[in-house]
Amino acid sequence: MSPMNASITSSAIIGVKPHPVRVEAHVGSGRAGFVIVGLPDAAVREAKERVRAAFASTSNFFPSKRVVVNLSPADIPKVGTAYDLPIALGVLAASGKLPPGAMDVVALGELALDGVVRPARGGLGAALVARDLGKPCLLPARSVAETAGHDGLGVKAVRSLAHAMEVARGAHPGDEIEPALHPPVETPDLTEVRGQTAARTALEVAAAGGHHLLFRGAPGSGKTMLARTLPGLLPPLDDHEAHEVALVWAAAGRLRPGPSTPPFRSPHHSASMAAFIGGGSGVPTPGEAVLAHRGVLFLDELGEFPPQLLDALRAPIEDGSVVVARQGATVEFPCRVQVIAATNPCPCGYEGDRSKPCECTESMKARYKRRFSGPLLDRFDLQVDVPRLRVSELGGPLGERSSAVRERVTAARRRQFDQRGRLNRELRRSDLDALEWTDSATRCLADAATGDRLTARGWDRVRRVARTVADLDGFGPVDGPHIAAALSMRVTM
After folding, report:
1. Rounded Cα distance, 37 and 351, in Å
2. The model's pTM
3. Residue 173: is the preceding peptide bond cis (ω within 30°)?
4. Which domains, ranges and CATH numbers included, belong to the chain?
5. Which has the closest alpha carbon to 433: 389, 478, 472?
6. What is the pLDDT of residues 95-106, one digit of tens each?
């Protein structure tokens, strides 16, 4: 057999963007062997053993020649098991077992030793690459769920290497694609929260303007429950937002729960920097903060988080993105998140409690409060106390349902985009200066500025929150009561 070459397209995800990868196979003379080049990681190098075993299980064939596989472009790191299927198809074509026309596809999938095609990270990315190139895409049946909700994708589900060969030849149309089974999203309803009128109001304002919110209160006061109701108060993601979120989750190799529901992530305070922001060996993958893109990042027990993690969150809060630099690559992840945090007022948690005395010394309180840097606290537009309820208050009347609050939130957001083109959280100082303020609002702001009660950043945040309160009221200019409401939702640690 004369030396033969063949190539097939696959994909690699850098950050959250898919890039085409040419899998070039060469079968020629020389000492028999199997070499993979093109910056493969350990999992990719191990593909040769999986491919050999799959060939033995499928056709009892493997070329007794020198096989060289090149993953191009060679300067992009290749990670994971997703290249097993395109490597196998490329070797078959270079050996003359598949016609050249069969390679006019995009393929991705891991091979089991018996030839079964298993899901691998990057299914959605491969489908998008195929759409851009005008080619069909061969994916494992269980990876097809990633592509749900995206139009114009010529995806063909394959079960095994033998099945993929038939589909590539055109002898089989591919398996029928079943509807995606996304993990269910369970969001507590706001009616489950009794009392806490001030906290509920702050939660509605935060939802309407996309503001960052800090709850402070004793253990058992309901901070966590309040935070978990927030996704149910937010309007569903539009198609563009849902597409962004799907790409982020696909880059992490995970199936997005509830395609139109804003994500909710609650990382533990013991998480590493890579797990929290993003990273890992080779090409960085998204962390928990990035997985919350277009949704809610909840930091429970804020005081327990290491300072370096909280400091790493400052830039994403302001810029809406995070840059992760590693030896293998430097990538930028989108990170437009709404941060909700909860903390105790002191180490024992009962400072200011109505029924249980605080047991902390002044030095213990001082050390505890030093955990919260001023710049970090200043980034929370709303800071609200959540007092513990007495047992007699727990049996009070039910509050509004989340659906009713969501209608007001949706209407307020619509006003923001119609009038200013963005959420109030994202308004710049020049935007705030251009807003209409009544004389009463101007006087309230001037009073608040006396005595250095507000930093320059805090001044702008009060104005943003006041604008959101006015939007919820359906009010045109910002008035004095709106400023007063915004100031009442800025307690200090």
Report:
1. 62
2. 0.87
3. no
4. 4-169 (3.30.230.10), 190-426 (3.40.50.300)
5. 478
6. 888 988 889 999
